[in-house]
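Chapter review: from sequence to fold.
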Amino acid sequence: MTSRYIAIDWGSTNLRAWRYEGDNCLESRQSEAGITRLNGRTFDAVLAQVTEGWAEEDTPIVMAGMVGSNAGWVNVPYLSCPARLADIGEQLTRVKENVWIVPGLCINRDDNHNVMRGEETQLIGAHTLMPSALYVMPGTHCKWVRVNDDRVEDFRTVMTGELHHVLLKHTLVGAGLPEQTDSPEAFNAGLERGLQSPEILPRLFEVRASHVLGVRPREQVSEFLSGLLIGSEVASMGDDVPAQQAVTLVASPSLTARYQRAFELFGRRSQTLSGDAAFQAGIRSIAHAVAK
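The token string follows.
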């Protein structure tokens, strides 16, 4: 096998690709050809396009994300938790010669039904770069993941990012609003309200009423709503987090900053790790095993 390999993060709306030699990234590419945006092309054709000029005959390609979902190239089985992080790289599904997809993780209990795809690869990298017992992975669907040594014991999903989008774009909360502006003050006000009153349903209409009554500028609704939702999430999910335990936040710097502020006000310590750095460290670890 060659020491060169290709790593792919293939989500619903975007695709990112990296060409590696060992731990060195030689080149990266991005595409909007997520699994919901193929525009009539096959998965094979999109992969060939995004890796054009990269792949030699024996170059391994390792893919993670929604490409392995029931709407993706192949419906790759989930690994049931508890699961060792090392098991993930040993359970790859081959879709063609030298092309593999990483499995996701699932919880299937009476008190918790959950799945993840893509975040498991971030977890592998995050646990290598910044070992922790609790990872919070903000995004469209925020994951709260408990890890014991190298075993994923449990995780929950909170649809904070998607709820923010839906409320602003498809409900009365966001109807008729002007272009939204950044406002740390509005975000912090929403954050404090969400932390103090995590029961979110009775608070949502107040987001609209507050600007209708002139209490809050109409341009700051998005920021206040973001704070309200994140505050509610942290207050609801963080109650059983011991005060001495540091939460590890894995996401983009802009998102981790918002959650770090929420945990600070909630009285919990947190540390941050770039989601990109975690993903690339994780998929490198998996690809190295394939390339041996």
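Two observations follow directly from the output. The two ends are 6 Å apart (CA to CA). The mean pLDDT is 93.
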